[in-house]
Amino acid sequence: MSLVSERVTPENTGLSLLRGFLGRCPRCGKGHILHRYLKIVPNCADCGEAYGHLPADDMPPWLTIIIVGHLLFPNVWWVERNYNIPLWMEYVMWPSLGLILTLILLPRCKGFVVALLWILRLKRATTEKTV
Ligand SMILES: [Zn+2]
User: Fold this and answer.
1) Does residue 27 belong to any structural domain of this protein?
2) Measured between alpha carbons, how far is residue 60 from residues 4, 16, 120 in Å?
3) Dist. CA 27–CA 67, nearest whole Å
4) pLDDT 10s per residue in the chain (131 long)?
């Protein structure tokens, strides 16, 4: 199964989520769903699927925090237990590593969340009155 060429339905969730994580359109896998780092494109440039209405909101940063925390803190603990690194080096190393991981993972998490919202067909609730 090709990651790019096969069009999927929402039932093929694993492939769609992987495409979203990689920043590609969950439907066709060709177009990008983010531009300017974290901005969601209104429509896929290849297949025209609409994404601009999907409310990712705070879930991508929370997901990124959870992943970075679970990657970073066990390693901080392990290094503290096994090595005697100067404190100034740890003050530089761990925040830098956390920042780099965050900058790498945040757009991927946003793509993943947009793909998840697209699969679930969720959209922002409107507050318009119908009367
Ligand atoms: Zn597309």
Assistant:
1) yes
2) 24, 17, 16
3) 25
4) 445 545 555 568 999 999 999 999 999 999 999 999 999 999 999 999 999 999 889 999 999 999 999 999 999 999 999 999 999 999 999 999 999 999 999 999 999 999 999 988 887 766 666 55
Expressed in angstroms and rounded, the spacing between residue 109 Cα and the centre of ligand 1 is: 18
CA of 87 to the centre of ligand 1 (A): 48
Classified as helix, coil or strand, 39 is: strand
Q: How far is the CA of 61 from the centre of ligand 1 (A)?
A: 24
Structural domains in the chain (count): 1
Q: How far apart are the C-alpha atoms of 45 and 36, rounded to whole Å?
A: 15
Domain that holds residue 78: 13-120
Between the CA of 27 and the centroid of ligand 1 the distance, in Å, is 5
Q: Can you give the pTM of this predicted structure?
A: 0.83
